[in-house]
Structure formats: structure tokens, C-alpha cells
């Protein structure tokens, strides 16, 4: 089970927009619980999700000078949450 804040959930939805298959798989296992979203992912989905976040961080996480930008930081927080909650 992975828990993300509403803010993290909304950001995740925004970066998943072009990956409709993964977006559907992730949102189908999500549920709102008080102030957070819970994702009941199987092992395969967790791996796909983690891989997606790492790829997306490389894709959009750097400015023109190859320095980490705000997206890099947001995605790194998601990566840390996924890793810490699944290991």
C-alpha cells in the first residue's frame, strides 16, 4: 500500500497524462482516505510505477543547464515515498 497526499496525487495525475495505460492502472487501485490517497498496487504495478517515475525525472527534471528543477524535486519525493513504503 502506498500513501500519497492530495497534492502528490494531483501532480502524479498531471505527469501521467501521456501514459494512459499506466495512468489507468494506477488510478484504478487508488482510493481517497481522509487527507491522502492510498494505492493498493501489486508488485508488477509498483515496479512499473517506480520505473515510470525514474524515467519521467530524467525527461522533465532538469533545466537547460542540466540542473535539477522543481519537477525533479517533486518526482524525487514521489520516488522516495514509493521506495520507503514498499521496502
The total tally of domains equals: 1
Number of strands: 3
Question: How many helical stretches?
Answer: 4
Mean pLDDT: 93
Poorly predicted residue ranges: none
Give the percentage of residues in beta strands: 5-15%
Report how far the terminal alpha carbons are from each other: 11 Å
- Classification by helices and strands: alpha+beta
Q: How large is the radius of gyration?
A: 13 Å
Instruction: State the helicity in percent bands.
Output: 55-70%
User: Strands of the biggest beta sheet: in what spatial order?
Assistant: 1-3-2
**Rough outline:** globular
Reported for the largest beta sheet, the result is:
3 strands, antiparallel
- What is the chain-wise order of helices and strands? EHHEEHH
Jot down its keywords.
single chain, 87 residues, alpha+beta, 3-stranded antiparallel beta sheet, 62% helix, globular
Descriptive overview:
By secondary structure, this protein is an alpha+beta fold. It has one domain (2-86). 62% of the residues lie in helices and 14% in strands. The protein is built from 4 helices and 3 strands. The chain has a 3-stranded antiparallel beta sheet. The longest helix has 18 residues, at 43-60. It is globular. The N and C termini lie close together (11 Å). The model has no long low-confidence stretch (mean pLDDT 93).
